TrEMBL record:
<dbReference type="Pfam" id="PF18310">
    <property type="entry name" value="DUF5605"/>
</dbReference>
<dbReference type="InterPro" id="IPR025277">
    <property type="entry name" value="Apiosidase-like_cat_dom"/>
</dbReference>
<feature type="domain" description="DUF5060">
    <location>
        <begin position="2"/>
        <end position="68"/>
    </location>
</feature>
<dbReference type="InterPro" id="IPR032260">
    <property type="entry name" value="DUF5060"/>
</dbReference>
<feature type="domain" description="Apiosidase-like catalytic">
    <location>
        <begin position="100"/>
        <end position="356"/>
    </location>
</feature>
<dbReference type="InterPro" id="IPR041239">
    <property type="entry name" value="DUF5605"/>
</dbReference>
<feature type="domain" description="DUF5605">
    <location>
        <begin position="401"/>
        <end position="460"/>
    </location>
</feature>
<dbReference type="InterPro" id="IPR017853">
    <property type="entry name" value="GH"/>
</dbReference>
<dbReference type="Pfam" id="PF16586">
    <property type="entry name" value="DUF5060"/>
</dbReference>
<protein>
    <submittedName>
        <fullName>DUF5060 domain-containing protein</fullName>
    </submittedName>
</protein>
<dbReference type="Pfam" id="PF13204">
    <property type="entry name" value="Apiosidase"/>
</dbReference>
<dbReference type="InterPro" id="IPR013783">
    <property type="entry name" value="Ig-like_fold"/>
</dbReference>
Length: 463
């Protein structure tokens, strides 16, 4: 049997089905390549079926041995060959330096994310197909999505067994829910889109009983999700969305859960936690200097603060929520496409990244709007975000962006890198044009902006 590097090798075993296998049976395995050993948890998948998933990170022969307190599952041995990765397989994304990301094979990765919190939960195959088609045609290479439901939802399946609010069996998981969730994860993987999986959130408000679980129930859920999903190379972990809106937990609880995920993820996928904020009133940014956090996942309405966050913590900044383009009655869901595009440019000029979202439920025949259930993309910002992504991907590390936002300057004098000859391009970020200024420039350059908003400069050193 062969599996490519950073692919998924899965063992399927048959074991006890009586009692409660989710709590009664322990299963794990050790995978060894030469002197490298990786320990992973297995999981029960219903009907007497147990699985162990493993992501090999070295080409060559791997050996494994299972461990279990169930004799039918214990001491199973075998080998498989790991072959080099295929086209498009660059491995998991890792932090690179203080402010950036790269895939495991060294390929640069620029996060251009979007949010579809519960696009998999209704198990509406038609709408999910529309979502995947929209993503395939979009600039987005990361998506934020939830494991747990909100209080307003009545999905056909939940992560736990049961369908009665407040009476879910939190000692048993629902394999049907997870099998569907994983099918969509594999679809995202085929599109080259990272899945930022939101493990917990505060939007249940006690209805299903999944936002106020005990510490033991939290860990039980997280360990099962880690065992099922961590072998997929494109997974990230968001410990919680808007952690500070959950009144059942304190910061110390979130730190314990973050360290738990760090300890039980064999592959050390990217990890962060996302703050809430009262829009335009205050911010409650998490302490991202904590060792278990790999990058800053921020909610804030002003991307111009990106430089401040980078100075205070030497970890990449991703403003996963900055306000959504759309026409909702809430302030966070009715900014214009132009306003959202400006936030992307403010962050990019400072060395950070912004996430997209949109809310046009009145125009969406598929459901309640993109950020909730996916469907189709409608916003004016999407092609402008694609334009920005193309510019950043073709840039060199020495290139510099200067962005003027909504200001309507007649002209601006911009200081250039010292002792360097530079070419300068004038960028209309809304109309998506790039015009090179004549000549080679040194010292300063005067950019004639003629009162136009949404203009930027790209400054490039000449050879």
């Amino acid at each position: 049997m062969t599996v490519e590097q950073w692919g998924v090798h899965e063992l399927t075993l048959t074991g006890p089905a009586d009692g409660n296998p989710y709590t009664d049976v322990r299963l794990s395995a050790s995978f060894q390549y030469r002197n490298r050993i990786v320990d992973v948890d297995g999981f029960y998948d219903g009907d007497g079926v147990y699985r162990i998933r493993f992501m090999p990170d070295r080409p060559g022969t791997w050996r494994y041995t299972t461990r279990s307190d169930a004799p039918a599952l214990d001491g199973r041995r075998g080998t498989f060959e790991c072959v080099p990765p295929g086209p498009g397989n660059h491995g998991p994304v890792r932090v690179s330096g203080a402010h950036g990301f790269r895939y495991a094979d060294g390929t640069a990765y620029l996060p251009f994310g979007t949010t579809c919190y519960h696009w998999t939960h209704d198990q509406d195959e038609k709408r999910e197909r529309h979502t995947l088609e929209a993503l395939a045609a979009s600039p987005f290479n990361k998506i934020r999505m939830c494991v747990l439901p909100t209080d307003e939802m009545v999905p056909p399946h939940l992560a736990f067994q049961g369908d009665t609010p407040g009476a879910l069996d939190k000692t048993r998981f629902n394999p049907v829910f997870f099998a569907h969730f994983e099918r969509r994860l594999r679809d995202l993987l085929a599109l080259g889109i990272e899945a930022d999986v939101i493990l917990l959130h505060p939007y249940d408000r006690g209805h299903w009983g999944v936002d106020n679980m005990s510490p033991e129930e939290d860990r039980f859920l997280l360990r099962y999700v880690l065992a099922r999903l961590s072998a997929y190379r494109h997974v990230w972990w968001s410990i919680s969305n808007e952690y500070d809106f959950n009144r059942a937990k304190a910061v110390a609880d979130w730190d314990r859960l973050g360290r738990f995920v760090q300890r039980h993820d064999p592959y050390q996928h990217l990890r962060s936690i996302h703050n809430g904020t009262r829009m335009y009133r205050y911010e409650r940014i998490y302490d991202f200097t904590k060792p278990w956090i790999t990058h800053q996942s921020i909610q804030h309405w002003d991307a111009a603060l990106t430089g401040r966050w980078l100075e205070s913590c030497a970890k990449p900044v991703v403003i996963d929520e900055i306000g959504y383009e759309g026409k909702l009655g809430k302030r966070w869901g009715n900014i214009t496409g132009q306003a959202l595009t400006r936030q992307f440019w403010h962050a990019a000029a400072a060395g950070g990244y912004v996430g997209h979202g949109e809310c046009y439920p009145d125009q969406d025949p598929d459901g309640d709007g993109w950020i909730s259930v996916g469907g189709r993309l409608r916003g004016e910002s999407v092609p402008r975000i694609a334009f920005l992504r193309r510019l950043l991907e073709e840039a060199s590390p020495a290139d510099r962006l200067v962005y003027f936002g909504d200001r309507q300057h007649a002209y601006r004098d911009v200081e250039l890198p010292p002792d360097a000859d530079c070419s300068v391009e004038l960028i209309d970020t809304w109309n998506m044009t790039v015009t090179e200024l004549d000549g080679v420039h040194r010292g300063t350059v005067r950019a004639e902006l003629k009162g136009r908003p949404d203009m930027a400069l790209r400054i490039r050193r000449t050879a």
